[in-house]
TrEMBL record:
Gene3D superfamilies: Mur ligase, C-terminal domain (3.90.190.20), Mur-like, catalytic domain (3.40.1190.10), MurE/MurF, N-terminal domain (3.40.1390.10). Residues 34-106 form the Mur ligase N-terminal catalytic domain. It comes from the Bacteria. Pathway: Cell wall biogenesis; peptidoglycan biosynthesis. The lineage of its organism: Bacteria, Bacillati, Bacillota, Clostridia, Halanaerobiales. This is UDP-N-acetylmuramoylalanyl-D-glutamate--2, 6-diaminopimelate ligase. It is found in: Cytoplasm. One of its GO terms (cellular component) is cytoplasm. Its main location: cytoplasm.
Length: 505
């Protein structure tokens, strides 16, 4: 693994590091030579600068004493604190932004030396960034990706630190530096609302920012849907005038995100015919998607080159109406990066999809589809896809939304009930996946009870299981010839395909 605390150097003076921070007060200033910067007191070593950050569960200011004992010579924080006379304390307006500024500067702003494409939205981030990565890699030979599933640098794959969709600012700068060291220019990156709200991506230099959609999700973290929306908006307000933004015009929230941004922007859509780029003549089967892309208006790419209106046909070996939106987003972003249309088409049509995104893992006497769907938007996309399939009955194996609240699980339950008749749902099997999930994703009893009650009250049959293996056994017991087994849910089901392959092959 290439992650390092800081780039190798002889150190930086404290004065040169803090000269562009929004400082309120400085206590016991000494111009220390700083050799390490961290917001984790455990990682403090001699000559460190410790940044105290107020988290939702932990306040970093409580660890200042430990940081000093471990070797910190200077502290940055937001609160007024009593400090040892031999330690410098710098009180700032925002510790998170201060950390981002410091790290970006120490690494010499590597994101400015890359072609960085940021993608945000409730659903579609993973597939869209993967499509962009595939297109850029196919055309130029090497590419990189940072997202939910992994960090990819050329052909090397790494687990993301802290299992976050978007890593912290120190990890990101490490990754960007490694990408640049390997002479790779293009980075496709998922940008989560959590990272935006918490300023984990503050100061990064995006060439293009893409918005896929926004719907109800993550309200256990955000105070409201407005807070969720305006966290997303941070990505687009960070763009300078010479950058570009891409919006899904079929999503009503796009209009809010377009307001008051400096960057030029272009739109894509299926339903809204006013978009710059639209999809028409759509055909969906169990094997592929075919549609035509129409560039309706003149576009100007990142290099100032004019792209004239034109049309082309696309044939994708993927499932799902929603993947047309993902393809439109990826197509729009890459054409704005300056790639030839014919090369984009060729690369896009060779994209085989990604793991756990409407992935057909078995298709013989019955069919099994595995998807990460865990919120109303992604579940609806799944249901709209499979309603066009020919099968006898549907069995659902579902991992609940652990520690995301009763309301979120109730909404998912009501959605499954709403679609039950149309999809010929026979049974819903839930699994807590106790042997698979980490603590933050463990399902609470009240979440399971809330979901179960709604399903039972509707008259649908529901079976609750604790272990993933038990849930799979039940599902395979009930699925019959020409049935469809749909696996839906977050990380608890990540090993389901592997377990199933051992049971039925």
């Amino acid at each position: 693994m290439f992650y390092r605390p800081l780039p190798e150097s002889k150190g930086f003076t404290l004065d040169e590091l803090i000269n562009d921070l929004s400082i309120k007060e400085v206590t016991n200033f000494q111009d220390w030579t700083i050799k390490n910067i961290t917001d984790n007191s455990v990682k403090v070593e001699d000559a460190s600068l410790f940044v105290a950050i107020k988290g939702f569960n932990v306040d970093g200011h409580q660890y200042i004493k430990q940081a000093i004992e471990n070797g910190a010579v200077a502290i940055i924080g937001e609160s007024q604190v009593q400090i040892d006379k031999n330690t410098t304390y710098i009180r700032v307006e925002n510790s998170r932004k201060a950390l981002a500024k410091l790290i970006n500067r120490i690494y010499n702003y590597p994101s400015r030396k890359l072609r960085l494409i940021g993608v945000t939205g409730t659903v579609g981030k993973t597939t869209t960034t993967s499509m962009i990565d595939h297109i850029t890699g196919q055309i130029v030979g090497k590419s990189s990706l940072i997202g939910t599933l992994y960090t990819k640098i050329d052909q090397d794959y790494f687990a993301n630190p802290n299992k976050c969709t978007t890593p912290d600012i120190i990890s990101l700068n490490n990754i960007f530096s490694e990408i640049k060291n390997r002479e790779i220019d293009y980075v496709s990156m998922e940008v989560s609302s959590h990272a935006l709200k918490l300023d984990r991506v503050f100061g990064l230099d995006y060439d293009i920012a893409v918005f896929t959609n926004l719907s109800y999700d993550h309200l256990e973290f955000h105070e409201s849907i407005d807070d969720y929306l305006y966290s997303k908006k941070k990505l687009f307000t960070s763009l300078s005038e010479d950058k570009l933004a891409v919006f899904n015009l079929d999503n009503a929230y796009s209009k809010v995100l377009m307001e008051d941004i400096k960057a030029s922007y272009y739109t894509y859509a299926i339903k809204n015919k006013d978009a710059d780029i639209i999809a028409k003549d759509i055909k969906l089967t169990k094997r592929e998607l075919t549609f035509d892309i129409h560039i309706q208006n003149q576009l100007i790419n990142n290099y100032g080159k004019i792209i004239q209106p034109t049309s082309l046909s696309i044939n994708l070996p993927l499932l799902g109406y929603h993947n047309i939106y993902n393809a439109l987003a990826a197509f729009t972003a890459t054409i704005l990066l300056g790639f030839p249309i014919n090369k984009i088409k060729e690369a896009l049509e060779s994209f085989k999809g990604i793991r756990r995104r409407m992935e057909v893992i078995y298709d013989q006497e019955f069919t099994i589809i595995d998807d990460y769907a865990h919120n109303p938007a992604s579940l609806t996309a799944n249901f709209k896809t499979i309603e066009n399939f020919d099968y006898n009955k549907l069995i659902i194996l579902h991992f609940l939304k652990g520690k995301r609240g009763i309301k979120a699980n109730k909404i998912n339950a009501y959605l499954m009930v709403k679609w039950a008749d149309k999809l010929k749902t026979k049974k819903i099997i839930t699994s807590l996946c106790e042997e698979e999930v980490i603590e933050k994703n463990q399902v609470l009893k009240e979440e399971e009870l809330a979901f179960t009650k709604i399903i039972k009250d509707s008259g649908l049959e529901i079976i609750n299981t604790n272990k993933l293996a038990e849930g799979i056994n039940r599902a395979l017991k009930y699925v019959e010839n020409n049935d469809l087994l749909l696996l839906v849910g977050g990380p608890g089901l990540d090993k389901a395909a592997e377990i199933i392959s051992k049971r039925i092959t």
